[in-house]
Amino acid sequence: MKYSEQLSLEQEFNLRIFADQVLTLSLEQAQDLSIELYRQMMLKDNMYEDLLKDYCNMSEIPLYF
After folding, report:
1. How far apart are CA 46 and CA 20, in angstroms?
2. Could you tell me which residues come within 8 angstroms of residue 52 by beta carbon, excluding any fewer than 6 positions away?
3. 33 and 25 in contact (C-beta within 8 Å)?
4. What is the DSSP letter of 6?
5. Radius of gyration of the chain, Cα coordinates, nearest whole angstrom
6. Neighbour tally for 53: CB within 10 Å
7. CA distance 55 to 37
8. Which of 16, 53, 63, 65 is most buried, most CB within 10 Å of its CB?
9. Helix and strand totals (H; E) in the chain
């Protein structure tokens, strides 16, 4: 499987909109957003791990492949 390291034009546009919005946040808002983003990234990791377990019929996935 080949993964692209480039964003699509739509993704670039959305990133620019997000960046503009982030620049208007207070320090406390930015910190809260960072914490929530990190939490959601961990949830995404859990979801990917569960999907891989189901796909590979594994009860546990090793840390390193």
Report:
1. 30
2. 58, 61
3. yes
4. S
5. 17
6. 13
7. 27
8. 53
9. 2, 0
Does 41 have pLDDT greater than 90? yes
Q: In this structure, are residues 60 and 53 in contact, taking their beta carbons and an 8 Å threshold?
A: yes
Instruction: Grade residue 10 by pLDDT with cuts at 50, 70 and 90.
Output: very high
- Asked if residue 42 has pLDDT above 60, the reply is yes
Q: What DSSP letter does each residue of 7-46 carry, written as one string?
A: --HHHHHHHHHHHHHHTT--HHHHHHHHHHHHHHHHHHHH
Asked if residue 61 has pLDDT above 70, the reply is no
